[in-house]
Design goal:
4 helices, 141 residues, elongated, alpha+beta
């Protein structure tokens, strides 16, 4: 759909349980986006919203009955905010952890019982990349 996001969200929407937002930074779009999501029916009653943000960005304004969780982020690395009811926010965090655990299990399994080529090569390269990224996160801590 080729349209302006704020114009699109100004229309009545279908409610979603989980919403991911990655706005352009330093343009003042986040507060308007959140307001339109909440006021035009885009969010289900117990929705959970993930907002990507800059490492130094200010926390978004959330309704008083919602829980705000700052995603773990290290200096100079982008992070995000998860807000919604406590149950939904924790569910989203735990789903992310479970998916990461599944990815690691897939990559480690490949070490003991290699997949056929070219998948084997791809998984090994992905594992090296993942180890490097986790190492950078630990180093930045």
């Amino acid at each position: 759909m080729h349209t302006d996001t704020l114009s699109f969200l100004a229309q009545p929407g279908t409610p979603f349980d989980i919403v991911f937002i990655d706005p352009p930074f330093r343009q003042g779009l986040l507060d308007n986006t959140l307001e339109l999501l909440a006021s035009n029916g885009w969010l289900a009653q117990n929705a959970c919203v993930y907002v990507e943000s800059e490492a130094e960005g200010a926390a978004p304004t959330v309704p008083p009955d919602w829980h705000l969780h700052r995603e773990k982020s290290r200096a100079r690395l982008p992070g995000g905010y998860i807000f919604g009811t406590v149950e939904k926010a924790m569910m989203l965090i735990n789903i992310g952890r479970l998916l990461m655990l599944a990815v690691w299990a897939f990559m480690v399994f490949n070490l003991f019982m290699p997949f056929p080529r070219p998948l084997n090569i791809f998984v090994n390269v992905a594992m090296v990349f993942t180890i490097m990224m986790h190492g950078l996160q630990l180093h930045a801590a």
